[in-house]
Amino acid sequence: MKNTKIHTIYTTLLDYFGYQNWWPIVDNNTSLYLPEFRTRQRTPAEIFEIAVGAILTQNTNWQNVEKALINLKTDSVLNIETVRDIETERLAGLIKPSGYFNQKAKKLKLFVEFIDGELHGDIMSLRDFDIDTARKMLLSVWGIGKETADSILLYGYYFPIFVVDAYTRRIFLRAGIVDKAMEYDNIQGIFEDNLPVDSLIYREYHALIVKLGVECCRKKSLCENCILREKSLCSIEAK
DNA sequence: CGCCAGGTTGTTG
DNA sequence: CAACAACATGGC
C-alpha cells in the first residue's frame, strides 16, 4: 500500500526550500550547487570528487569537508592518479579538517585501489553494472558502508537508489513514519516503494531532508520554524 | 567550554 | 545480534 505522506513531505519541502542542486562541487574555494547538476551527467572528475566527499563527510559536517576538499584541490591532489601516488601521511595531513583523517586517508587509498582493480582504472565503468551489483561492489570496499555507497551511486551515477542518513532517521522518526529499530534497507524501502523510481526526486529529496535537518530538525529540535509542523505533517511536541 | 556533525568498523556480552 | 568504543576536527 502507498504511503502518500512520503510524497507529500517531498513536495512540501521542495515548495518551501526549492531545488538544492546536490551534490556540490568545490571550485574557487567554495561549494557550488548548480542547477545543471539536476540534468546533466557527471564527469569522471566530478564522480571522483563526489565519492571523496561522501567518504570525508562520514559523521562530519560539510563545512569541515569543504576545507579538506579545498586543500586537496589547491595541491592538485583531487584526482585518481595523485591519490594513488601520494603518501598516506601527506594525504592525511591535507584532509585533517574533516576529522578521522588517518582512517579517511586509508579509505581514499582503498577506494582508488578499487577503481584500479575492479574498474580497471575507469571510474565511469561502474555505470555499466546493474544497481545491485554496483552496490555490492562498493560495499566490499573497506570504509564504504551503505550510506556512502548509496550516495556515490545516486549522486555520482544517478542510479535511482534512496540515501538514508541520520537526518532521515531523525525526521521520519519524529514524523511517526519510521521507528527507532528499523534498519537501513528497510527505511530505504519505505521511500523507494512510495516514490516514483526517479533519480532526480531521490537526489532532491535527500538533499531537502538534510536542509530541514540542519535548519530545524536538530537533536534539539527547532519545531517552531518547521514547515512540516506548520503543514501538520509532523506532530511531535517541541522541546 | 561542551556539543555535535550528510558513518563505518571492530570488539564485547 | 545489540550495544558500545574508537576514530578527530572545527564551528557555534
Outline the low-pLDDT stretches: none
By secondary-structure content and strand pairing, the structural class works out as mainly alpha
The portion of residues forming beta strands comes to: under 5%
How many DSSP E strands?
2
Question: Strand-and-helix sequence, N→C?
Answer: HEEHHHHHHHHHHH
What would the average pLDDT be, to the nearest integer? Answer: 97
In whole angstroms, the N-to-C terminal distance is 33 Å
Task: Enumerate how many helices there are, as a single number.
Answer: 12
Specify the overall morphology.
globular
Question: Strand order across the biggest sheet?
Answer: 1-2
Helix share of residues? Answer: 55-70%
Rg is 18 Å
Walkthrough of the structure:
- The chain has 239 residues and is mainly alpha-helical.
- It has 12 helices and 2 strands; from the N terminus they run αββααααααααααα.
- It has a two-stranded antiparallel ribbon with strand order 1-2.
- α2 crosses α3.
- The longest helix is centred in the middle third of the chain and has 18 residues, at 101-118.
- The chain is globular, with a radius of gyration of 18 Å.
- It binds a DNA duplex (13 and 12 nucleotides) through residues 53-55, 57-65, 67-68, 96-104, 107, 142-148, 151, 163, 165-168, 206-207, 209-210, 213-214, 218-219.
